[in-house]
Amino acid sequence: MIGDTEQTFQRANELRKECPACTRLATFWVLAAPQGMFFAEIESNINSVLRTDAEVSLALARRALMRFDFAPATNYAKAALAKMTQWSQPHILIAQIEIGRATGPAPSFILPLAINV
Q1: Cα–Cα distance between 23 and 114 in angstroms, integer?
Q2: What is the pTM of this model?
Q3: Tens of pLDDT along 10-46?
Q4: How would CATH label the architecture of 5-104?
Q5: Which residues have a Cβ under 8 Å from the Cβ of 16 and sit 6 or more positions away?
Q6: DSSP 49-104
Q7: Contacting residues for 105 by C-beta, under 8 A, at least 6 apart
């Protein structure tokens, strides 16, 4: 399933029915959700208890940032940081959010630079 987000999402969807309280599974589900899925739909499919988990919060922050939805991205990244202050990822994500706010949704912000050889 490595690199196959569609299959990963389908499998995570199936497993969530069996293990609805599994935070790791919820994290995978959020990150593997189809790119066309609206953030509000992703968020509404994760129950409020799971959303308070640091890993799930960080995944939700990443998905919100992918849609340039800065307010929930910031809220979830800060929630993850409050729970896991020793993690570097919330700090990095908050910095990315601030860069996104400053630059706006520009392709250069979300696409890697191509290296011509």
Answers
A1: 36
A2: 0.83
A3: 888 899 999 999 999 999 999 999 989 999 999 999 9
A4: Alpha Horseshoe (1.25)
A5: 22, 25, 26, 29
A6: TGGGSHHHHHHHHHHHHHTT-HHHHHHHHHHHHHH-TT-SHHHHHHHHHHHHHHH-
A7: 68
